[in-house]
Amino acid sequence: MIKDQIKKIYKAKIINTEKVSTNSYYIEIDCNKEIEAKAGQFVSIYCEGLTFRRPFSIFTNNKGKIGILYKERGKGTKYIKSLKKGESIDISGPLGNSFSIKNCKSLLIGAGIGTAPISFLKSKLENENIENIFIAGFLNKNEIPKLINPNIIYTDDGSFGKKGNVLSDTEEIIKKYKPEIIYGCGPEIVLKKISELGERYNIETQISLEKLMACSIGVCRGCVIDIKHGTKTVNASVCKDGPVFWGNEVIWQ
To answer: pTM above 0.90?
Structure first.
């Protein structure tokens, strides 16, 4: 596993960086090599002076030009925010598994920064002419990244789009749209609800978990969750075994 990880480390160059909402940023990195990245996978970035890399979902990929969306939350993202166009960066990836793309009607749900991998998934589905609807939710209009393009947007305060959270009308949408699979990324409470709705309406669900990671390669066991494996409960590392899981296999707390 560690050998595989070393093969995926690139000395890359920053080709774009910008603020895309009041609290989120976009950075595009040229890995100097064509890279195949799948929707749901992530990259891990070395931040100067810090022991562990920082993981970020892949938002865009154009022949090795990787784009990520992020919020400034700590020392790692503060370091990334300080980087300028033209500077070098140490990036590892793509890592983790990916969404299982099926040729069927798809409902996509993303909340907050969880819209990043869902946006990437939407682009993949559209490239394959797979019918889909993308629903996104934010606290207010100022938190909506200008680079995303959902079909429906919810804001908690009603300052843009529909008032409510991203799951306010999900049951009505399921009944009307009749999706055959639901994909989601966002806070755990959102993903748990998506999984419950999937079981209620007998629809497959796949969710990408947002979890704090340290090593990003399954060694430290810092991002372990419980999942169902037949009749048993087993441990899974979000970074190595995920971050994408079937909703009905996760044991929600």
So the answer is: yes
Strand partners, 207: 184, 245
How confident is the model over 2-61, as pLDDT tens digits? 444 445 777 899 999 999 999 999 999 998 888 889 999 999 998 888 888 889 999 999
How many beta carbons lie within 10 A of that of residue 77, not counting itself?
17
- DSSP per position, 117-184: HHHHHHHHHHHTT--EEEEEEESSGGGS-TT---SEEEETTSSSSEES-TTTTHHHHHHHH--SEEEE
Pairing of strands 9-19, 88-95: antiparallel
- Regarding the domain with residue range 2-95, which homologous superfamily does it belong to in the CATH classification? Translation factors (2.40.30.10)
Sequence length of the chain is 253
Sign of CA dihedral 67, 68, 74, 78: positive
Whether residue 86 contacts residue 28, with contact meaning beta carbons closer than 8 Å, is answered with no
